[in-house]
Write a structure and sequence with these properties.
1 helix
């Protein structure tokens, strides 16, 4: 999900599909949250094609562990009211390959599901918008592909339209899992490159109880095929830690 697109809210339920589509944009890509709401009676499907990650670490014997992961997560959003939407997500099918001391082990499974409600906050400002999201990630996935314990979070996003070609935003997320708290701050920027092609960049800072802080940087491209469909591609890397950690993603989103 992206924090960078400043989304318009449909103001009349009687508007035509083309008018509503023109006022809508997607949350993909990015780790943050957009401020817009899906039009009432419409369904947004946001799908990774898939995401990939590569990480290195060391086991208790000092051996280097290399892990490659692919997963096809998805998010469905539908408008319940002019300023309220329901979100249903699934981390999807996933595949991992772990290599230690020249030996490789592969595994696959299904990830967790999530449910959330997002509400837009009217700030009475043409350039400034805000939304909050209450979400629960339910640990229903297979072993090795699940968070193991449910995660409950509250997020807020504020976006500022700096100009016709530059949007800035910041997302704050507070979450609790098995009585342990974590906070994440994600400032970001989206900028128009040419025509229907735009780019984004974001920095994510996360601090959880009893763990070291994590800082990551991501950037990518978004191509709007139409008001109802877009493709995206992104790459990212973790800036903290002694080992390599890279992420990449391809995605498509469509408004029905």
């Amino acid at each position: 999900m992206t924090v960078f697109k400043v989304l318009s809210i449909a103001t009349l339920s009687g508007l035509s599909l083309s008018a509503m589509a023109a006022d809508f944009s997607f949350d993909r890509p990015g780790a943050g949250m957009g401020t817009g709401i899906t039009p009432v009676g419409r369904l947004a499907w946001e799908q990774s094609l898939p995401n990939a990650s590569y990480a290195e670490s060391r086991d208790e014997n000092g051996e280097k562990v290399k892990t490659t992961t692919l997963n096809a997560d998805m998010l469905f959003r539908t408008g319940l009211a002019q300023d309220l939407e329901l979100q249903l997500g699934w981390q999807g099918p996933a595949w991992t390959k772990t290599k230690v001391a020249g030996k490789s082990v592969e595994d696959d499974g299904l990830g967790d599901v999530s449910i959330g409600l997002k509400k837009a906050i009217d700030l009475h400002d043409d350039k400034l918008s805000m939304a909050i999201l209450a979400e629960a990630v339910i640990a229903t996935g297979d072993a090795g592909f699940s968070n193991e314990d449910d995660i409950y979070s509250l997020s807020s996003a504020v976006a500022y339209k700096f100009s016709d070609t530059i949007n800035t935003s910041i997302t704050m997320r507070y979450e609790v899992q098995d009585s342990d708290w974590a906070v994440t701050a994600i400032p970001g920027m989206e900028y128009q490159i040419a025509g229907n092609l735009s780019g984004f960049s974001e920095l994510a800072y996360r601090k959880a109880e009893s763990t070291e802080q994590q800082v990551s940087l991501a950037s990518g491209l978004i191509y709007a095929v139409s008001d109802r469909m877009q493709f995206d591609a992104s790459v990212g890397l973790e800036l903290t830690g002694a080992h390599k950690n890279y992420q990449s993603g391809l995605g498509v989103a469509y408004l029905f």
